[in-house]
Amino acid sequence: MIPHRSTALFSLVVFVALLLFVYSPSAIPDPEEEDASEPTKNGALPNLPSLNNFHLPSLRAPAHEPPPEQKDSTSGESKWFSNWEWLNPFSSAVTLDEKRAVLPPLRERRPIYTYYNPKFNPKKHKGNDLKLGQDADQQLLLAWRRAWFAQGFRPVVLTPGDAMKNPHFETVQKIRLSSDMENEVMRWLAWGHMGTGILADFHCFPMARYDDDQLISLRRGTTSELITRVENFKGAFYAAEKAQIDEALNAAVPKLNEKFTVLADLISPELFQAQKFPALALYRTSSLTTHYPIVAEKINKSPSTGRLALVQLINAHLHNTFQNAFPAGLAVLKPLPQHTTALVEPALRLAKALIQCPESPMPNSCPPNLPDCRACGASKQTMRISQPDNYKNTTFLFTIGTIPHPYTLVSLQMNTEQITTRQIRRDTARDPFLTGITKDHLGPDLGSSSRGVVFKQMVASDEAVGSSLWMTVESLPSEAGQSLPSELLDEFEWQFGFKIPRGGKIDPKTENDKESVQHRNPSQQGVRQEYDLITKAREIIRSKGTNRINVKDVTEAWNLADTEAWRFVKAYRARSVVERRKWEEAERTFAGSRH
Ligand SMILES: *[C@@H]1O[C@H](CO)[C@@H](O)[C@H](O)[C@H]1NC(C)=O
């Protein structure tokens, strides 16, 4: 009996202890909480922890320090921090700085190398054609770099200087080789010196959508033990790790002789794996006669002008591939359409330039890898432009988005430059931009900060890179009829990968296209007035430090999510410009060390 009673007693004690433990105010004493419960110096009651903090203890230690500044992370007024936590509704939660946006980490660019010896090709040019010929080569190399950069790679042009740094160079130099074979060996030596990556002929172009599966896997890189080559490309494209390149060179160099013109023929085929690569277009000189006779004929007549025609042909094919990639056309986002005609005008101009047929020596031709394309010159319908007030998540549509600062949007909505705090609070809804463009995509009920997170994906996710372009209204011209600044177009070309037609010969066909004329959504206050308001708003957004209550700050505070979205786009664009400039600088120092 006794043992039984003591068990019951023990259970009771344990039960009471558990109760005490569960209901005690703080199971584990938290030094910070004890701190907070002490009266403050002047005896006032301390702030109670907010409901949010109470229910959702943060998973990581709260950041007390702003994250350290990263290299190349400012441009003008924009500041950013590249981090995996970019999908936070508010950047300031991470950076502790309202003006510093959190962007996704920069995508790593896999290097793609090409080899160019300025003294090699001109041998084929005649007399005074030589200078022109080198110019044509420069144009071709530029087109090659632009196309690969737009597809997410880091293109690098290698020259004999790079080949000379390879330890095999001394040996190779002593062997008599035909000039073709010498060029071939030097290009491998230069690649071997650089190491892991892709080696491509500069007549080899990526000719597919950004989200093409093959390009995705090329960007990612291989883990293969073999050197990847492309079927039927005869040495024009290889991808490999450094160890394999070295192995190939070690095998080939001792066997070099005059008879071979492709280095790979000297190496055991077991070192290679051949793949089909329908995403790549190769404009091999020998095949031009069959597929592009007009260009071939021009090259025969005068190599330099002929090669310029080839550059134009390739550019036209790249542009045409873009047009074919988006069968639903271009969407120029136009939220609050009664007020934003002037606001989207620059984006519409860009769209109209993009749907033009590129100049081409053979306007009806298709790229070598896409014989069934719809050539712009041959089809009756140009690419369609629409101006939806809502974002559509489809890969068939290329989206051009223009985001205004909340102050700009409010002054357009209210049709006045004299805005008061009272008006903002009484007469305007919060975050009209995000609510507007995501209404269909996310429904009417979601909160702005959740919309903001989806918006960031619309701008900067992997899916968005090749199918959208975002800019802030304030970075664009604000005069009616003004064409887009050429520096801006230059910049966009590195995203599109081809030259954007300039000088605006707008096709009359498209001018009357119902979808593309602005009058479809007539402006309420008149476009002229909209332009004036945008110009004035821009001045106010730029100006700093007035004594009276700053209405700009009020619009920002009232539209927290729209402001966040605006800063995000601004920083994202600024970063892409900085990224490209840094790459070009690095390229230039490369070139400088060669001579
Ligand atoms: C668009 O749709 C894809 C696929 O359904 C999805 O993964 C992506 O998150 C969507 N993007 C946005 C911005 O909603």
- What is the number of beta strands? 15
Percent helix among the residues? Answer: 40-55%
User: What average pLDDT do the residues reach?
Assistant: 82
Q: What characterizes the major β-sheet?
A: 6 strands, mixed
- Ligands bound, unique: 2-acetamido-2-deoxy-beta-D-glucopyranose
N- to C-terminal separation? 102 Å
Number of domains: 2
Detail the poorly predicted runs. 18-63, 506-517, 591-595
What is the molecular shape? elongated
Radius of gyration over all CA atoms, rounded: 31 Å
* Strand order in the largest sheet: 5-4-6-9-8-10
Query: By helix and strand content, what is the structural category?
Result: alpha/beta
Estimate the strand proportion: 5-15%
Q: Count of helices? A: 25
